[in-house]
Amino acid sequence: MTFFNSTYSQVLAAVLLACWMIAGACSKEKVDAPYPYHELKTFKIVAATGDTIQAAIADGSIILYWPFDEPVPATITPLVTVSDKATVSPASGAAIAIKDSVSYVVTAQTGATASYKLRVIVNQPELQINSSSDMVGQLGANLSIGGLTYVIPDVNVTSAYLVSAKGEETKCTINGFTELGANDYALEMATPDVDTGSYKLKVVSATKTVTSEKAFVKVIYPIPAVIAPSTAITVKRGETFTLNGSNMRGMLAGRARLTGGQVYYDLELAEFNLTSVTYRIPADFPVGNYNLLHAAFRNYQGVTVYMRAGTINPVLIITE
Amino acid sequence: MKIKNLLLPALSAIMLATACKKTETIEPPAPANNRILSYKVTNVPDAAVYGAIDDEKGTITLILPYYYFLTAIQPEIKLSEGATVTPGNGVLIDDITKKLGEGTQVAYVVTGKDGSKATYNLVLTTQQPDIAVDELSPDPANPLVLYHSDPSTFQFNFFSITGKNFIPQQESLGIFSTISYLNEQGTVVYTAVNGDNFTNSIGTAVPSAAQLPAGLYRIRITSYTRSATMKNPVKVETL
Fold first, then answer.
1. A28 with B66: Cβ contact below 8 A
2. ipTM higher than 0.85?
3. CA separation for the pair B49, A65 (Å, rounded)
């Protein structure tokens, strides 16, 4: 083979050697190693008020503390900075939805990535309801529910619900807030038109929600009222008399006391409807003039409540 | 002979190839070793509160929920490997109420393992809602007149200031709302400490003539970390 004769090889080697020397002289070329850093360094947003809120970044989370008196917007436009030569997605300045599921991925020049999850913490104190005392609302009247702490006294951000034993919720129409003590509020409303009974109270105020421990809101029928007689009622033993009034539910035996006496004598309940109650004078009822006449009803707690029927003296005269 | 003939150019070729690969690789700069990586306040009722760290500005911004009324904080500080910090990890930072009010900053100095130092200022804030005060004198030309109290005769003239988001007193924590009287130059002439207030009203007595000379004053309420000043003055005089 003439191609590979020794002379040719020697020439080729010399040429290559020369090349190597020349190449060797120009081989001081510098190459940057790719950066391995992929840290999310800062995360800031400008709130509607103009305040800048910087999020804390720790353990792969972006923790954004949000002031509760400012509504959390649907989207925010965070400005983020990352390690040198790293890239980030979503990019700095890109609008994102405020959701806990949002993640930022930082990619180093080497291609290594780190993921940071957004966590929004609204700095709002926990609501408290003191349900140790009953709050009673009569149907058709106003109801004031006290014992609320850290509720925001603003109907635009605070709402209330009565929760029945079955868990059904009825939204209340809040008319206002009364500050009973420092930070101790009462909700003012018309008694919601629900069945009578005991209800828990659920309050939503900005980002916080609380439901009372006890069913301390008692919705009751309006309390019975008696129309005072303008003239004395004169009846014989065994006869009946009728007192007019309103909301006469759960009526019970009445009673009367002799003028100057100390003892009450019970009147038998004959009948009642919403607007009247009829009592019968027992056969052994003492004859005489009575200055105290009471109708009675059982209240929502099962307690007998007496209502005075008129202040005239005598109001009831029992004859033979 | 054939192999021998091939050997010489091949060797040269290899030499040439290796020569071309002899490039210099520049390693990325080592990360700073005097950093605070995380700042976590652990003495809080619920989840720990983390500070936002800004290496460039040298700040740790800590948003303390105002309703914790923290008087001291105990941080857990994570540093670059081999670094140390002063004040140290876990060292209590106290007088928080005062620091919040006066905007005092605490400086943390980190020393890296190479001896380099970095300073981080602790910036304390709360997200306490802004407070608002209602004007006592709706018409600036017709200021409300308040008469001096006279402690010598036990005469205290009380009046109420209404508004919203006042922080009720936290006596055990030394948190009280204050009522300051600013003269026409905007200088605080007298500040009364209030012992009792609601979130929407503060009751206070008019200062005595010795405390506050007669004149026109604008009233400023300071409640925890927030302040609000009335636009229109009240007129203070002796009856």
1. no
2. no
3. 9
CA angle B171, B175, B177 (to 5 degrees): 110
B40 at interface of A, judged by CB pairs closer than 8 A: yes
Residues from chain B contacting residue A12 (CB–CB below 8 Å): 8-9, 12
Measured distance CA(B116)–CA(A153) in Å, rounded: 52
Q: Report how far residue B37's alpha carbon sits from residue B40's, in angstroms, rounded to the nearest whole number.
A: 10
B158 class by beta-carbon count within 10 Å (0-12 exposed, 13-18 middle, 19+ buried): exposed
What type of residue is A69? Answer: D
What pTM did the predictor assign?
0.72
Dump pLDDT digits (tens) for B71-95.
899 999 999 999 999 999 999 999 8
Q: Which two tokens stand for residue B68?
A: 């914790």
Which of A10, A12, A20, A155 to mutate to test binding with chain B, by most B CBs within 10 Å of its CB?
Answer: A20
Query: B168 and A183: CB-CB below 8 Å?
Result: yes
Give the closest-approach CA distance of B45 to chain A in angstroms: 11
User: Taking the CA of residue A319 as centre, how many other CA atoms within 13 Å lie in the half-sphere pointing to its CB?
Assistant: 4
For tokens 């702490």, the residue is A149
Strands B234-237 and B145-147: parallel
Q: Which residue has the tokens 């002379």?
A: A7
The position carrying tokens 């080729």 is A12
B30 touches chain A (CB under 8 A): no
